[in-house]
Write a structure and sequence with these properties.
The complex is a heterotrimer.
Chain A (H helix, E strand, L loop, with lengths): L1 H5 L10 H12 L4 H11 L3 H10 L11 E6 L2 H5 L2 H12 L12 E6 L11 E3 L2 E3 L7 H11 L1
Parallel strand pairs in A: 1-2
Antiparallel strand pairs in A: 1-3, 3-4
Helix pairs in contact in A: 2-3
Chain B lengths: L2 E5 L2 E5 L5 H8 L22 E4 L5 E3 L10 E3 L3 H16 L15 H8 L16 E2 L5 E4 L8 H9 L6 E3 L6 E3 L16 H5 L5 E3 L3 H8 L6 E5 L1 H10 L5 H14 L4 E4 L1 H19 L6 E3 L3 H10 L13 H12 L4 E6 L3 H12 L8 E4 H10 L21 H5 L5 H13 L18 E8 L2 E9 L1 H6 L1 H6 L4 E5 L2 E4 L11 H17 L9 H10 L9
Parallel strand pairs in B: 1-5, 11-12, 11-14, 13-18, 14-15, 17-18
Antiparallel strand pairs in B: 1-2, 3-4, 3-5, 6-7, 7-10, 8-9, 16-17
Helix pairs in contact in B: 7-8, 7-18, 9-11, 9-15
Chain C lengths: L3 H10 L19 E5 L2 H6 L1 H12 L6 E5 L11 E4 L5 E4 L7 H9 L9 E5 L17 H4 L17 H6 L4 H9 L2 H10 L12 H10 L6 E6 L8 H8 L1 H15 L3 E7 L3 H16 L15 E7 L8 H8 L23 E5 H13 L1 H4 L3 E2 L2 E2 L1 E8 L5 E6 L4 H8 L8 E6 L5 E4 L9 H6 L8 E6 L4 H15 L5 H18 L7 H24 L3 H5 L2 H9 L1 H10 L13 E3 L9 H5 L5 E2 L7 E2 L9 H5 L5 E3 L1
Parallel strand pairs in C: 1-2, 6-7, 6-9, 7-8, 12-16
Antiparallel strand pairs in C: 1-3, 3-4, 4-5, 10-11, 12-13, 14-15, 14-16, 17-20, 18-19
Helix pairs in contact in C: 7-11, 7-14, 8-9, 8-11, 10-11, 10-12, 11-14, 18-19, 19-20, 20-22
Classes of the chains: A alpha+beta, B alpha/beta, C alpha/beta.
The complex binds flavin mononucleotide, iron/sulfur cluster (2 copies) and FE2/S2 (inorganic) cluster.
One iron/sulfur cluster (SF4) binds next to helix 19 and helix 21 of chain C.
């Protein structure tokens, strides 16, 4: 992380901030306060403002991802196939809310507007592995199964 | 006046580019607004200022739409009133209905709107916003459950100050106003200037009150208690209670404070005299060195600003502690007290006190800082009203002051005080009120004076935005010193004053102080016998070093 | 391979336009060719495993060619593979999960047809012997009833190959445009074609372009709006993923027409495959000399950049999108000034929807008049619809602009089940419901507008009796409530109140007192009052159009609302929170079967003792009621 921070150019323009944030998030899975402060120094944009900008968007989370990063689709196609129950159940099972990480750092949850497999809904993914046409009763197993594999 | 348009079927004229709102205000039609603020860019967020386009029935926001030729608008059609009403009803639904306990009650724009639009029944029922309360700052409390997200605080912090200690975060139903990583104001770039406090239409941002703790302590007879009151607060009280003379108000207040339990009551002006005297010493010393501006300020907000946003300038800042800290130090030597309270027009002083408590452990402290507003409430709570039944002078050593120390808290007060002191020391006759002639509205002023045959230039600048604006000039122009303050009318319009800080009121306060200064022959710090006495008896010529 | 620049030049200007025939299906092959439709949808459906198994199947022993192909657009077919064996026509298979790979390949490589369930159709061609009794793709009802203009080459063109795109005539429209037409001529042609923005606003594209061109400023921007984040709309992703070169060509023509030197593709960061392919396409285009400085010696420079939108629905709105590129919070700004006057970084900017842009090469190639041959009233061309919900076919289909709801249903409902369709929700969160009696409604812009609906980016959500109107409305309003930028009060607070009212209607109250019922009864009028406010006073289209769902639902399905409010029942059985399940202690024998079957572990109790349902955990699935043999579960 330090290396990446050092690799940043001396001056950063305002319209580049989002892409640096994206890069940081891609690499480390979340945004660190120290990174925002660094960007603030290099761009001369107050850190409060950068935080305000970043928090507007879905992409950025401010807590490290859990060991298991769970994504769930809330597209309309998933919804008409009981997607909402899946989301609510999932939240209960992994004890985590959107953009949050569970207190034991085990799970983090991300709700995706549409995953792009509208014929396969509801779709859930755990660390990049997809589960399609998920039923509420299968959720527990999906989660615990991942636990065992790891 | 280039464009013609119709307001409620009457022909009116507007300038090109003028917004409908400003045209209407000029004509004298009042339109309710929430998000709009004169000095800030319009965002069109609250939608309260809508007017009806008579041609197509559309509702347009008057604050952000420029007048166009032959536009026909209706400002109070049934359609418009219904929309405005529903907007306010929506806001009220999730507003905590605790006006009874809210400090802003009576002065709240939302409350006023509800009344104006005759909303006297609760229409929608719904969840209240869950708002965190940020109490981290010693000066400001932000209760986000009362926030209506008009964005005024955010824009004032960004557009005027470019600090953005707070910004809108998240979006949709989760939108709120927060500091970076929601750490709280104390840990942010906030300089505690209080602009957001003055900007907020509701009780979401308020000065933090220590009143209840203080009242509790006042009942404790085992401890000794002292209080120092600043002259801007005295002037504020004077104007609030219709007392015309400064010294009269001061003496009423001193007597009242004695009666409610303070053994000692002082005025801050004595310590401002010390500040002036020390600063003058530092400047005289500097005259012999190569010229660089000495930034002289008593304002904690300015200091924090320089420290966090412009650290390069730190080297130029005069190291003399602010009057409030001088008071703490000298009073701890002169007369030991268990509880020391200071009254100030400013919430940044609350921050300053806590900040020094936190950084200089063991050093004499101010225990509580009250705003003028709190002082007024304190007196009210304890059943004291002004004019009081008796008058008493401030306790020793504040029993004598110079009018320069009183004038200190108005615009150009520091400059005036120092120039007078320099003249006094070089044996010149003091030229009174030279700087006073400068219009008080001006945010930046220069002044030139003679001292021992040489000409010196000094400058004074008000408002952080102007400080930034004139930064290069300040560094370049060979000023002997520069007075910097964060409020536009120095301490007189601090956001802790008991009355709202409009220009008219500020002028009244200034007049009270100027009159006192004009009559007073002790018009320079060095003429204050107690100052002279202090240096002589301790056999020193300065307390602080500027190194 | 030869220098791409030469190839491009030769293909576009030489007589060598068929130089790359080998990339087309028509060619007869001498070793088996396997085509895999790899895209986001099929990856989730398991195409990666399928590809793995195909590779394993051949195992380096047999010669074969594996080609990554674009998608036909039908997501419910995923994963799709195509197989062409020497001498025979190409045949397409659907739903090929990895475990079917060997069965299918075993038979087809031996010229035997596998199980009919897997077969989509064949693509016959001269000189290739067709498969018996297999329908030709273009004759398959699903495709025959479409009018595939933008999607013409989908399923054939290879997304990662510019040569393949050339082969389908790609970039010739751009080459002709830039060498033979002036920018104003291009604007005029597009104007004459009456092409209207497909992003929802339906603004005349040619006019917008001319406005920007006429500003006369030297620096201008052209932005392709591929933000697409309305739930239920996935056509933009299809376009960008499967035919990125079509998007790039459209952008090049557009940027040339408005005189923009810089173009930006604004696409969601979650569309990673689309971004990857667009990036590849841009690299290829640059290598081919079709983009960058001095294109074909014309002195025209056009740079295209990709901006990865960090995710917010409202950033689809053009002023918000611009704010987002500038590095701001993506909140809409009051208009005027319009982006064509003062847009990105203060320069004139044209923002166009990705589908609009994909229509442009066709128009330049075929002319404005031809474009207007299809259409209805004042809306011409074709329109993509993202069909999802209770249909047999889920995916993107393209019909004539102004096709009726019925026409679209005919395409995607295969077996007369149409009578079960209760409603269609079009236009995503800005749109509304169309009920069955109105399925004859033409979906052209005028009719849509006069019906107070919104076409948006063409989402088409089909609902049957198992869907509840209130639940769907709640879903969209919740979406608005989350996605509103939060700036203006009517939208932020209004959507919150709407949601709460809908929740009150569709849930059992905590304490069922008179006050609660009164609030519920008042709900409907309040829905109307708030809706009107939002329409009239919201700052941007998001808030203005959000109430469409509510109002159209109220107008056409009032009965459903009333059932919820007065009878407290949801016929579709979706609003589960209207119900509570209890154990009738006297009937319960403590067999424990309900506790075992409950997916939420909401039932507790020890053997042979009466059980108990923990209401907080219960998800109202009703399993307990159906498994209990002793009638001990009661619904209230
Ligand atoms: C809330 C909101 C969301 C929008 N989302 C999109 C979108 O996802 N994609 C899009 O192309 N246009 C979207 N638009 C429309 C754009 O503002 C803009 O009109 C459009 O990109 C112009 O392109 P067109 O003329 O080609 O349709 C949206 C508008 C609103 C108000
Ligand atoms: S805190 Fe006050 S000024 Fe700031 S947005 Fe909220 S209501 Fe407006
Ligand atoms: S209508 Fe909604 S999304 Fe649009 S500006 Fe207002 S709050 Fe933002
Ligand atoms: S004052 Fe115009 S929108 Fe708020």
């Amino acid at each position: 992380m330090e290396k990446f921070m050092e690799s940043l150019p001396e001056k950063i323009k305002k319209n580049e901030i989002l892409s640096y944030l994206q890069e940081f998030q891609d690499r480390f899975g979340y945004i660190e306060l120290s990174f925002i402060e660094l960007l603030s120094k290099k761009s001369e944009i107050p850190s409060g403002k950068i935080y305000g900008i970043a928090s507007f968007y879905n992409q950025f989370r401010f807590k490290p991802k859990g060991k298991f990063h769970v994504q769930v689709c809330e597209g309309s196609s998933c919804h008409v196939n009981s997607g909402l129950i899946i989301i609510e159940e999932l939240k209960k099972i992994i004890k985590t809310d959107e953009k949050e990480t569970s207190s034991d750092s085990k799970y983090s949850l991300e709700i995706i507007p549409c995953m792009g497999a509208c014929s396969q809904g509801p779709v859930v993914s755990v660390n990049g592995k997809f589960f399609t046409k998920v039923k509420p009763s299968e959720l527990k197993q999906i989660i615990s199964q991942q636990d065992e594999i790891a | 006046m280039a464009i013609e348009f119709y307001v409620n079927n009457t022909l009116q004229k507007a300038e090109k580019g003028e917004t409908i709102l400003s045209a209407l205000n000029r004509i004298g039609i009042s339109i309710p607004t929430l998000c709009n603020m004169a000095e800030l860019s319009p965002t069109g967020a609250c939608r309260l200022c809508v007017v009806e386009n008579a041609d197509n029935g559309n509702l347009i926001t008057s604050c952000s739409t420029p007048v166009s030729a032959n536009l026909r608008i209706l400002t109070h059609s049934p359609e418009v009133i219904a929309a405005r009403k529903t907007i306010v009803e929506l806001l009220l639904t999730n507003h905590p209905e605790n006006c009874l306990y809210c400090d802003k009650s009576g002065d709240c724009e939302l409350q006023k709107l509800a009344e104006e639009l005759n909303i006297r029944e609760k229409l929608f029922y719904g969840n209240k916003i869950f708002g965190k309360t940020d109490r981290s700052s010693p000066g400001i409390v932000r209760d986000m459950s009362k926030c209506i997200l008009c964005g005024r605080c955010v824009r004032i912090c960004e557009e005027i100050l470019d600090i953005s200690a707070i910004d809108l975060i998240n979006r949709g139903k989760n939108t709120s106003i927060e500091t970076v990583f929601q750490k709280g104001l104390y840990y942010s770039d906030c300089i505690h200037c209080g602009l957001c406090v003055t900007a907020c239409p509701t009780g979401a941002i308020l000065p933090k009150s220590n009143l209840n703790q203080l009242i509790e302590k006042l009942g404790d007879t085992k401890i000794s208690k002292s209080i120092v009151v600043s002259s801007a607060s005295i002037a504020d009280m004077a104007s609030k209670y219709g007392i015309r003379k400064y010294e009269e108000a001061r003496n009423y207040i001193m007597a009242a404070l004695h009666d409610i339990g303070f053994e000692k009551a002082y005025t801050m002006s004595l310590f401002s005299d010390f500040f002036i005297s020390e600063a003058a010493t530092a400047i005289l010393e500097k005259i012999t060195k190569p010229p660089k501006p000495l930034i002289i300020t008593d304002c904690p907000a300015v200091k924090k600003y320089i420290q966090t946003k412009d650290p390069e300038l730190s080297q130029f800042v005069c190291k003399i502690p602010p009057s409030q800290q001088i008071a703490a130090k000298l009073l701890s030597i002169e007369q030991k007290t268990d509880l020391l309270v200071s009254v100030s027009p400013c919430i940044a002083h609350k921050y300053e006190a806590v900040q020094t408590q936190n950084t200089n452990k063991g050093v004499p402290e101010i225990d509580f800082v009250l705003t003028s507003g709190e002082l007024s409430k304190l007196l009210k709570t304890l059943g004291v009203s002004l004019p009081y039944t008796k008058k008493e002078t401030p306790d020793k050593p504040a029993n004598s002051d110079s009018s320069a120390g009183v004038f200190f808290e108005t615009k150009h007060g520091i400059t005036e005080g120092i120039v007078r002191e320099l003249s006094l020391r070089s044996g010149l006759s003091i030229q009174l009120n030279r700087i006073l002639e400068i219009k008080p509205e001006k945010d930046f002023a220069e002044y030139e004076f003679d001292l021992n045959g040489s000409k010196y230039r000094v400058a004074a600048v008000y408002g952080i935005e102007n400080f930034k604006k004139y930064r290069t000039q300040i560094l370049k122009d060979n000023y002997l010193f520069v007075e910097v303050r964060s409020c536009r009318y120095a301490c007189l319009d601090g956001c802790g004053q008991s009355q709202s800080v409009d220009i008219e009121n500020t002028k009244r306060l200034r007049k009270i102080i100027v009159e006192y200064d004009e009559k007073n022959s002790n018009n320079s710090a060095g003429k204050n016998p107690n100052i002279k006495g202090f240096y002589r008896s301790n056999n020193i010529d300065r307390i602080f070093n500027n190194d | 391979m030869k220098n791409l620049k030469d190839i491009a030049y030769k293909t576009l200007f030489g007589k060598d336009q068929k130089a790359f025939k080998e990339f087309r299906y028509e060619r007869s092959v001498d070793i088996p060719h396997i085509f895999v439709e790899r895209n986001t949808g099929s990856i989730i459906a398991g195409i990666e495993d399928t590809i793995d198994y195909i590779k394993r199947y051949f195992n380096d022993e047999t010669d074969y060619v594996l080609i990554e192909n674009s998608s036909l657009g039908i997501s419910s077919f995923d994963p799709v593979i195509g197989v062409q064996v020497p001498g025979r026509a190409l045949i397409l298979f659907k739903n090929v999960k990895y475990n079917y790979v060997s069965t299918i390949l075993d038979s087809i490589l031996n010229h035997i047809l596998p199980d009919n369930d897997f077969i989509i159709a064949q693509v016959a061609n001269e000189g290739l012997s067709a498969w018996p009794d297999i329908t030709e793709l273009s004759e398959l009802g699903l495709f025959a009833k479409q009018n595939r203009r933008v999607l013409k080459n989908f399923g054939f063109v290879q997304p990662e190959s510019i040569e393949s795109y050339f082969n389908f005539g790609g970039y010739s429209a751009f080459a002709q445009t830039i060498t033979q037409k002036t920018p104003i001529e291009v604007c005029n042609i597009v104007e004459e074609s009456h092409l209207r923005g497909r992003g929802g606003g339906a603004y005349r594209t040619g006019k917008k372009w001319r406005d920007a061109l006429n500003t006369g400023k030297s620096l201008k921007y052209f932005i392709c709006n591929a933000d697409e984040s309305d739930p239920g709309s996935f056509s933009g992703r299809l376009l960008a993923e499967n035919n990125p070169h079509l998007v790039v060509e459209g952008i090049l023509i557009g940027a040339y027409a408005v005189g923009a030197r810089k173009a930006v593709i604004y696409i969601r960061n979650t569309y990673s495959l689309a971004i990857e392919r667009l990036q590849k396409a841009l690299e290829q285009v640059e290598k081919a000399g079709l983009c960058g400085e001095d294109i074909f010696g014309s002195g025209i420079d056009i740079d295209i950049e990709i901006f990865k939108g960090p995710g917010a629905y409202v950033c689809g709105e053009e002023t918000a999108l611009i704010a987002s590129i500038e590095g701001e919070r993506g909140a809409p700004k009051p208009k005027p000034p319009y982006p064509t006057q003062e847009g990105l970084f203060g320069f004139p900017t044209v923002v166009n929807n990705i589908e609009t842009i994909c229509n442009v090469p066709w128009i330049m190639q075929n002319g404005a008049e031809k474009f207007m041959e299809t259409g209805f009233k004042n809306s011409f061309g074709t329109k993509l619809f993202s069909v999802s919900g209770k249909t047999d076919v889920i995916g993107v289909i393209e019909t004539v602009m102004g096709a009726s709801v019925n026409d679209i249903l005919d395409v995607c409902i295969l077996d007369g089940r149409k009578s079960e369709i209760k409603a269609v929700h079009i236009g995503g969160p800005s749109g509304g419901f169309i009920d069955a009696p109105n399925f004859g409604l033409n979906l052209d812009y005028e009719t849509i507008n006069s019906s107070k609906l919104w076409l948006g980016s063409g989402s088409f959500l089909v609902l049957d009796e198992s869907n509840c109107i209130i639940d769907i409305s709640k879903y969209f309003i919740r979406f608005i409530n989350n996605e509103s930028c939060g700036k203006c009060i009517p939208c932020r607070e209004g959507s919150q109140r709407l949601l709460e009212i809908l929740e009150r209607i569709s849930e059992k109250p905590q304490d069922n007192n008179k006050h609660e019922s009164l609030l519920r009864f008042k709900g409907v009028t309040q829905l109307e009052q708030i809706s009107k406010l939002m329409q009239k006073t919201s700052l941007c289209g998001l808030g203005q159009n959000a109430p469409n769902t509510i109002l159209s639902g109220l107008a056409k399905f009032r009965q459903e609302y009333e059932e919820h409010i007065y009878e407290r029942k949801c016929v579709a059985n979706v609003c589960r929170n209207l119900k509570e399940y209890f154990v009738i202690i006297d009937n319960c024998v403590g067999c424990g079967i309900c506790a075992k079957k409950c997916p939420a572990d909401a039932i507790i109790g020890s053997d042979h003792h009466a059980h108990f349902i923990v209401q907080d955990r219960c998800i109202k699935c009703g399993v307990c009621e159906s498994v209990c043999k002793f009638n001990a579960i009661m619904v209230k």
